Amino acid sequence: MLGGYIGEICQRILNGIVRQLARLDPNPNLLSVIGLGINVFAALLYGYGWFFYAGLVMIFANIFDMLDGRVARLTGRVTKFGAFLDSSLDRLSDMIVFLGIIIFYSRDTQYHSTLYAALTGAALIGSVMVSYTSARAESLIPKCDVGFLRRPERVVLLILGSLTVWPESNHPLLNKMPATIWLMAVLSYWTFGHRLYHTWREIRELESAAEVAKLESQENKPQEKKEAKNLRLGHDPV
User: Fold this and answer.
1) Where are the domains of the chain?
2) Which of 67, 166, 172, 175 has the smallest C-beta neighbourhood within 10 Å, fewest atoms?
3) Ramachandran angles phi, psi of 32, nearest 5°
């Protein structure tokens, strides 16, 4: 109940922002590009180790990511290219943010960690494969949006992990970015595997249905030929 109430408030705030932006009649594609720029700024903050501030910027960046499509619909400027651009820049934003984290753990500082640089790279590859399998599968089956760690969940997890980073604190609930990286890496591949399995199962069901339809068609052909012959001879079909 509380979650629904908070969600409703957020939707009202977001709708108000969309209406104000729509009055300016901006190009939705420009909003998508600006959103990418904000994510690049977040990546720079990650690279310098300012995780908490990067998390705040990520909140703003992803609010911006939601605006372009809504503004496009409200102003009647929805285009196929706009949808393609928005999706493409979202993927690019994800990769740039992960790259910022990789750079941080690769730098020669007290926080240098080959393990976490590699895990972040693995999470980056996993996130790309989750998006790719969905896009590729939907050229074969109607829908493939299964799995836990889709982009919204991944972004929320990253923001929450970033906001816990206070290097000077020893509180057990803070500095959970390493745990966040482990979760993103593991759950990305879990989601990737889930989508592979889902697509395999859906394709098998489609192929089975097509085979059944083919067999039924072949079984009906002798009866259809008999009826056609009876019609030519002037007999009523039985």
Assistant:
1) 1-112, 114-238
2) 172
3) -60, -40
pTM of this prediction? 0.82
Tell me how far apart the alpha carbons of residues 141 and 181 are, in angstroms, rounded to a whole number: 32
Q: For residue 140, give both structure tokens.
A: 């074969």
Q: List, for residues 184-219, the tens digit of each pLDDT value.
A: 999 999 999 999 999 999 999 998 988 888 887 776
216 to 96, 203, 208, 210, 212: CA distances (angstroms): 53, 20, 12, 10, 6
- The length of the chain is 238
Which superfamily, per CATH, for 114-238?
A: CDP-alcohol phosphotransferase transmembrane (TM) domain (1.20.120.1760)
> Domain 1-112, what fold?
Four Helix Bundle (Hemerythrin (Met), subunit A) (1.20.120)
